[in-house]
Amino acid sequence: MSKESFNNLIFVLFLVVVVFISGIFLALSLRLFSLESFFFKTNYWIYSNFFNQIILGLVGALLIFLAIYLIWQKAQINKGNLSVVQKTSFGEIKISIGSIKRLVLKVVKGMEEITETRPEVNIFLYLRIQF
């Protein structure tokens, strides 16, 4: 799953949840139904027979597995994105952060003036806005 499709999926799921919750709040504010009757009907529907309880349990398990899958996908995207890309006229150069660390350590090892090294590579994004 690409980073863009993952972000789109999360955005759509978030919008569905927001629209559902805002629809309930709107219906409650317009007194289309009361909160007590909503809870009463929901409890009656869930506990009226064992089949409904099984369906609700399966939906809950499915949502938990979906959440775990999305967390796993996000971790995979973050692992694969640890590289620097430089576009040139000859093409694209891609080097991983680990390779940059190893190159820096090799260069520093050759310098006798430096006694201690700790490899730590960070990528920063600076945003400048002019009005």
Architecture overview:
The protein has 131 residues and is mostly helical. The protein folds into two domains: 3-80, no CATH class; 83-117, no CATH class. It is 64% helix and 9% strand. The protein has four helices and two strands, in the order αααββα. The protein has helices spanning 3-29, 35-47, 50-80, 97-109; strands spanning 83-88, 91-96. The chain has a two-stranded antiparallel ribbon. A hairpin with a 2-residue loop joins strand 1 and strand 2 (91-96). The mean pLDDT is 82. This is Alkaline shock response membrane anchor protein AmaP. Keywords: Membrane, Transmembrane, Transmembrane helix.
Mean pLDDT over all positions: 82
- In helices, the fraction of residues equals 55-70%
Rg result = 26 Å
Task: Name the beta content range.
Answer: 5-15%
Protein name: Alkaline shock response membrane anchor protein AmaP
Keywords: Membrane, Transmembrane, Transmembrane helix
Transmembrane segments: 9-30, 50-72
Break the fold down into its secondary structure elements and pairings.
Blueprint (H helix, E strand, L loop, with lengths): L2 H27 L5 H13 L2 H31 L2 E6 L2 E6 H13 L22
Antiparallel strand pairs: 1-2
Protein name: Alkaline shock response membrane anchor protein AmaP
Keywords: Membrane, Transmembrane, Transmembrane helix
